[in-house]
Recover the amino acids of this structure.
């Protein structure tokens, strides 16, 4: 059995004075209670142990008032051992109060209330299942929880709502919403299904979800993808001649070296898509979102790009000869070495566009801002 800590000495009293007034011993140090052999661990029990003089920036331990109110202040600074679901966790009252100051746990261990405790063990009983208490503690310590299944997220959400941990509840709701979004982005067809479909005379994938599929090197000419979701889909080296992509969601998709000659892409969302070295000649990209797209060395001759948003797009070395860019947004676009001969750039703002080495011979720049 460990010896009791030595009595503290007052700095104002003589060290050898035998008649000095009796001194109060500091409380025993915090020690986790050894596992019970009788199986008395109860889910949801918080065991509060008195600790020694805390090293804290607030008032010294000796200045704490005596009696019940003093024990409340003492509880704020001392350690806490939580027994949940048969497993004990060591933490501090500060952990339970800092991250979620408006929660039930923060109110319990704030020092403002006298907690009902077991007369011998000092346990504070909370009538809840302690299965997810470790996740709650990790959230209060680090502001993070591990990846869980959807059912586990729902169970933890109920615990967060009970303890009034609003930040944790919001975090879980965001995770659940993200899971729903991820599930909604799953493709409705496989590559094999698509190959079977394209053997028919007239092919339509209107409004289907084909996100994430590998459709590279397939002959998809004249296929109707209008209104479809094809985000992160791979069309590399595919033949898409005269295919229809009207109002599709194709962000982050790849069309590298694909044949998009005379394609219909009106109003399509191709944000951050890759079209490097593709053939986009005479394609219709009016009102399309092409922000952050890569058109490196792409053939965009005679393409229709009226009112297209090319903000931050990379058209390094692209061939835009005869392309119609009236009203297009080119802020931050890279057109280094691009061929813009006979291109229609009327009323286009080119002030933040890099035109280093670009060829502008015969281009219509009437009303353009440079």
């Amino acid at each position: 059995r460990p010896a009791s800590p030595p009595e503290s000495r007052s700095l104002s009293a003589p060290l050898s004075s035998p008649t000095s007034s009796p001194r109060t011993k500091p409380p025993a140090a915090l020690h986790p209670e050894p596992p019970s052999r009788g199986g008395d661990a109860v889910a949801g029990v918080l065991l509060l142990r008195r600790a020694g003089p805390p090293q804290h920036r607030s008032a010294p331990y000796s200045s704490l008032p005596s009696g019940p109110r003093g024990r409340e202040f003492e509880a704020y600074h001392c350690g806490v051992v939580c027994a949940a679901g048969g497993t004990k966790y060591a933490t501090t009252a500060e952990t339970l109060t800092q991250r979620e100051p408006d929660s039930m746990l923060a109110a319990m261990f704030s020092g403002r209330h006298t907690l009902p405790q077991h007369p011998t063990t000092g346990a504070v009983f909370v009538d809840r299942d302690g299965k997810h208490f470790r996740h709650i503690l990790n959230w209060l310590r680090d502001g993070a929880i591990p990846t869980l299944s959807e059912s586990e997220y729902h169970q933890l959400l109920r615990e967060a709502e009970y303890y009034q941990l609003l930040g944790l509840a919001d975090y879980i709701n965001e995770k659940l919403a993200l899971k729903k979004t991820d599930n909604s982005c799953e493709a409705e067809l496989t590559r094999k299904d698509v190959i079977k479909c394209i053997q028919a005379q007239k092919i339509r994938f209107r409004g289907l979800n084909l996100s994430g599929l590998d459709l590279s090197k397939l002959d998809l000419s004249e296929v109707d993808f209008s209104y479809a979701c094809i985000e992160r889909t791979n069309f590399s080296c595919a033949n898409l001649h005269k295919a229809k992509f009207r109002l599709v969601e194709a962000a982050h998709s790849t069309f590298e070296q694909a044949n998009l000659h005379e394609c219909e892409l009106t109003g399509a969302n191709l944000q951050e898509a890759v079209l490097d070295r593709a053939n986009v000649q005479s394609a219709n990209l009016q009102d399309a979102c092409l922000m952050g797209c890569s058109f490196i060395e792409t053939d965009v001759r005679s393409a229709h790009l009226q009112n297209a948003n090319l903000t931050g797009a990379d058209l390094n070395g692209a061939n835009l000869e005869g392309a119609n860019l009236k009203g297009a947004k080119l802020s931050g676009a890279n057109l280094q070495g691009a061929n813009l001969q006979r291109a229609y750039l009327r009323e286009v703002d080119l002030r933040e566009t890099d035109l280093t080495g670009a060829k502008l011979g015969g281009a219509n720049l009437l009303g353009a801002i440079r």
The longest helix spans residues 166-184. Strands lie at 45-48, 79-84, 87-92, 123-125. The first strand starts at residue 45 and ends at 48. The helical segments are 67-77, 93-98, 104-108, 133-142, 150-162, 166-184, 191-197.
